Structure formats: C-alpha cells, structure tokens
Amino acid sequence: MNETLQDVINETEKDEYARRVMELGKTHQQMIDEIKANEQERHWAETMRGYQPLPMPPEVQQILKEKLDAAKAKERQEGGADDVSYKDLLDYDPNTGVFTWKIKTSSKAMPGTVAGWLDKDGYRCVTILGKKLKAHRLAWWWVHGEWPPKHILIDHKNRNPADNRIDNLRLATPAQSAMNRTKQSNNKSGYKGVFKVKQYWHARITVNKVDIPLGYHKSLQDAVAAYEKAAEVLHGEFYYGKD
To answer: In terms of pTM, does the model score above 0.90?
Structure first.
C-alpha cells in the first residue's frame, strides 16, 4: 500500500497526542472531558458578551456593601493582616477612650453604638470577628501603630480599667503595674503596704517582686508615712499616692 502525505500527517498527530497524554499523566477520557469543558466556557463567554444587568436598588447595594466590607476585613484577618481589619470595623476616640462600631457586624453591633462590654475585673473587651481583645491594648495599637512587646502590660494611670483615653495609658512591666494597684482585698488596715502584727503596725513595700520591710510602728499613721515615703522614691511615676 502506498502511504499518502495525509497518512503521514495523521500518524504524526497520533504520536504527538499519545506523547502529551503520557506527559500530563491523563487518560484519553480526561483529555476529552477537558476539551468539552473548554468548549462550554467559550460558549458561555460568547453568550454573556454584551449582557447588561438590571439596576440594583440602593438599599440592596448598601446591604451588599456592608457584607463585602465585613468579608474583606475577615479575609485580611485570616491572612495575617488583622490590624487593618480593626479600623475597617471600628472607630476610636482617643479623647474619650470609647470604641464605636463603624459597620454592622451582628444584631448587637450596629453602626454608631459603643463596642464591647466590661469583664469581671472592670476591663472593657471587644470581640472582633470571633477574636476577643482588651480595649486598652487595641487603643494603644490604634494610636502608636504597634502592639506592646511581649511581657509588657498597659497600665491605667488613674487605676480605672475602663478608662481607655490614650493619655491614661502607659507601658509598664508587671512589677510597675503592681506598684499602681490598690491595697489587697485581705488588707485590714485600710492602707496599702501596712498590716497589723500583734500590737504593732508593720509596713513593707514590694519592688520587682521583692518585699522590703519598713519596720514595725506603734501607730498606724507612722506605718503609713513610712510606706508612702518609700513608695514615692521607689515607685517613681507609678506612685499613685495614699489609697
């Protein structure tokens, strides 16, 4: 049988097709399915060309915009850029320390309403996209552009944990923050650092987790004076004054 030029071309195409199938690791049926899928996509593109959608009502546009904003914020958070999403969802007033919602994120979080709640210790907390944050830490990042270093706290100067005005916040080590605390709940003298021991009043102060004795005094006033004098020197800017 004499082989025509067309026979040679057809045989060459078959060899090339077989090589591609082996190269891609696909079966003959998979190749056929892909070709059909591509044809369907081209047909759909041709069908939709020149299609003009109907105008969307403004109220529907607003709802979709809010959903899109929330979705974009969530996507950024899941991608690691959660800092950006907080400002998408909230507003912060550094003069009042109050966070308010910028967009609706739930039935309770409506635009313009105060964000968060007070926990059992009096600190305001805010839940953003399922993540609980202390408002004073968020306020610090909001203004300074960075989170406090690890093991560094944010201290409320006036001891009010719900007062998140930026001027009322400062960085502190755990020891410095402890200096600014009120007397312990089991303190019966009524004054920080002063305790009754038999017929005497014992004064002591803690610095960097070390208790420093300030002597035993016959009068409560002398013990309090001893503590206040030491605190003013050793606690520096974290000295709050008499409790």
So the answer is: no
